C-alpha cells in the first residue's frame, strides 16, 4: 500500500487488488487493466518501480503521472472491510509445512515433466485398504439408502460401539472407559479442538523437532507470542530439544514448567519411541508440575519392541494426560478421516473441574461427529479379521522402512528412527536441511522433508517416510546410493 | 440452586452418561443443574485426586449450560425412560430421517470399494476439497454469480466451519447475531473469547450485539438500531424462525455491512427449501463478494447429517482492514487445523450434484416441505400464529406470554412429541416453539393428530 500522486496535485492511497496476490504472498505484477462489472476496474497494476520505468507491456511510452492515475483507480473500487486481521494469523510463518512441500513438488514436476518423482515426503499412505474394511464402509453407505439402515446425526462423541471397540482394543487393562474416548475426523483436527479447549492463557512446551500442527495451532489460538528471527522460535513456546545427545527425549531436568506438554511417541519426525522409563519420568514430571501432557500416539502400531503404546500404560498417566490417536497411518485412512482422543475422567483443572466435561462441550459445539461411514470402517478395522488385515499392511511399510534405513546406513550416514515408526531421521552434519532437501529433489527426484520444517532442532536432518510402493522405495534407494556414495 | 445428584466414588456417575445419543433409551441422565459443576470430584477412599495446576479456560466457564441439542436429546431420553411404552416422536433436533437416494449412496459405496484397489486408492486429499467437487459446487450453486472453484472450501459441515471461521477471526473481533439464532454462532463466539460474561437478567452475553427478529419486524433486524460489529452472523432461510430474507432486505444488509466495514457470515444451509424467489445465496446481491462469507451444507439437502459434508465460500475480494485477503487466512486455517472432508463423503457430494443426484435431492426436500405444510396447517387450524415453514423445514409457533421451556415440557409430557423451545435460540425466542419437519410421514401425521387433541 502506499501514497501516490494522482493527476496533478491529488494524493490517493492504494491497496493491492486481491487478484494480484501471488500464492507465496509476494505481489505480482499486473499486466493490463480492464473494466469489470458495473464499469469498475477489477484488475490493475500497482507495483511501481522506483526508477519510474514502465514495466507494463503494451503501454509504450506513458507519462508517469497518467500511469499513476491508472494505478490508483483500482484502489478506489476495492472495498476493504474494517475488520482487523487476527494478529495470531499474522504470526504464522509462511505456509504450513506440508503445503509448502506440495508446492515445491508441483514446481519440480513442472520443471521436469518426465522425471519419475518418488514421494517419501509427506507421510501419506499408499497401500489399498483391506477389503474387509472397505466393504464394511460400502455396506454402511448402501444401508443409508434403506429405511432400516438410515442414520442421521450421530453422537458427536462417536458411535458407542466404536468407542467401546477402541477402549477394548487399545486400552484394555488401562482403566480407560468407552465414555472417555471421543471419536473424531483425525488427529490434526483434534489438536486444534484441544487448543480451543485450553484457550490462549496456557503455556505450552513442544519437542524440537515436532509435528508442526502443535506449534501452528498454538500460534493460531494465541499462546505463542511473536516469532523471533534470531532464535527461530516463538517467544512464549518452550522448545524441548530432542537430539541424539538426549536420546531424542527432552532433558526434563533442564525443562521449565509449562501448563501443557506436547509429546509425540513414536515420534514424528525423529521416529523415536519413548521408553517406559522415559515416559515414567515424563508422567512424574507432569504430576510434580501440575501439567497436562498431550500424548500423540498416532504411530503406536509401528512399534516393534517393548516401548509403551499408550501413555496410559504408565501408572498415574490418567491424571496427567490426554492421548490423541488416529486410524490414518495404520488403516490407510488418511483420506477417509478417522481418529480419536482419550480424555480420562481423572484429569482435572486447577479448580477441580474435569477436563472431560469441557472437551465434551467443545466436541458438541464445534464439531458434529466423524462421518458415520468412516466410523463403520473403523469398527471393521477393530474386528479380529480387520485387525489382522491391517497388520499385514503395516508390515509392508515396516519392510519399506528397513530398506530405507539399510540404504542410508550403508552410505555411512547416521539414521535414527525407522524401528518403531515409519520415519527415518537422517543426519547430514554441517549441512542445511533445505539445501539437502533441494539437492536430493533436484538430483534424484525424490521428495523428502527438511528437518527445519519441524523446528530449529531439525537443522541438519532430513525426514524420509516409509510410505510408498515397494518398487518406488527400492528405486529411491538405488538413486540415493548413486547420489550419496 | 438445587442440589446435584449424589456423587458416588465411581467418578463416571459424576458425569452421568456422557454420550447423549438419543437412541440409547437406557441412559441415566443427570438433571439439568448437574451440568454446573459445583464441587471437586469425590476422591476415592485410597488416594487423593490429583489436580493439575492448569487453569480452566475462562471462556469455557462462561458457557451457561450444555449445547442446546444434546440437552434436548437428554430430555427426550429421560422422557422415554419415564414412559417406556410411549411412542415418542421427534420434531425437535433438525435431523433428517429419509433414506439417501441410491444414486448418491452408490457413489459413496463405489469410492469405498475403490480404496481397496491400487488404481482407486487415495490417501490425503487437498484440505480445501477435491477439485471436481469444488467445481461442481461452484457451477451448481454459484454458476452466474462469479464465484470460482478456488473460492470454495469443502468441509465436514457447517458447524465445524463456523468454529474454524471463529478461530480465524480470533478473540479481538465483535460480533452480531440474530436473536433468535442457531446456537453455534454464539457458543463458538464465547469459546473463542469474543464475548463478555452471560448476563442472567437479559439472558445475553456481554459484547455480543443481538439483532432481534420477531413478528413485528418481519423477522428481519431493524438495522437502524444495530450497532456496528466486525462480524455479522446471518442465517437465511432462518433456523429457527424459518424466515427467508427478501432480496430487498439482503441488499440493505449488504449495504449495512459495506458502510460499517463489517464481514457478513451468511449461513445458507436451508437454501434449497426456498419455495418463492427469495435469494438463495448472498452472492446474488451486488457487492456481496466484498463483504460476505457463505456457509452451506449437504446435511439437509442430501440427508448427510451423519455423512458430514458442507462448504464455505470465501471470495477473493473479501479483505481485512489492512488489505489482506481473508481467503488466504481461511486457507491457512483449513490446512493447519483440518485435514479435509472424508473422501467417501466427497464422492457422495459429487453424486449429489450430478443431474440425477440433484433431481433425487429435490424429491427428498419436497418430501420434507410437504411435512412442513402439514405441520403449518395443523397449528394454523388450531388458531396459533405460525411463522416460517414456507421457505424452511422449521415452523415457528407463537405461544404468547408462556415460557418456551414450559410449553416444550407440556407438549412432551402430554403428546410425547419432542420440539425445541425457542429460548434455546436466544431470549427473543421465548414464547415460541420450533417444530422441525424432518420425520417419517406417518410420524408427522400422528404428531399433528396429537397436537390437535392437546390444543383443540
Automatic annotation (TrEMBL), chain A:
InterPro entries: Aminotransferase_I/II_large, DapL/ALD1, PyrdxlP-dep_Trfase, PyrdxlP-dep_Trfase_major, PyrdxlP-dep_Trfase_small. CDD domains: AAT_like. Pfam families: Aminotran_1_2. Residues 116-474 form the Aminotransferase class I/classII large domain. Its cofactor is pyridoxal 5'-phosphate. Keywords: Aminotransferase, Pyridoxal phosphate, Transferase. The keyword Transferase applies. The keyword Amino-acid biosynthesis does not apply. This is Aminotransferase class I/classII large domain-containing protein. The lineage of its organism: Eukaryota, Viridiplantae, Streptophyta, Embryophyta, Tracheophyta.
UniProtKB/TrEMBL annotation, chain B:
Residues 87-451 form the Aminotransferase class I/classII large domain. InterPro entries: Aminotransferase_I/II_large, DapL/ALD1, PyrdxlP-dep_Trfase, PyrdxlP-dep_Trfase_major, PyrdxlP-dep_Trfase_small. Its cofactor is pyridoxal 5'-phosphate. Keywords: Aminotransferase, Pyridoxal phosphate, Transferase. GO terms for molecular function: pyridoxal phosphate binding; transaminase activity. Residues 1-26 are annotated as: Disordered. GO terms for biological process: systemic acquired resistance, salicylic acid mediated signaling pathway. Pfam families: Aminotran_1_2. The keyword Transferase applies. Residues 1-13 have a biased composition (Low complexity). Belongs to the class-I pyridoxal-phosphate-dependent aminotransferase family. LL-diaminopimelate aminotransferase subfamily. HAMAP family: DapL_aminotrans_1. This is Aminotransferase class I/classII large domain-containing protein.
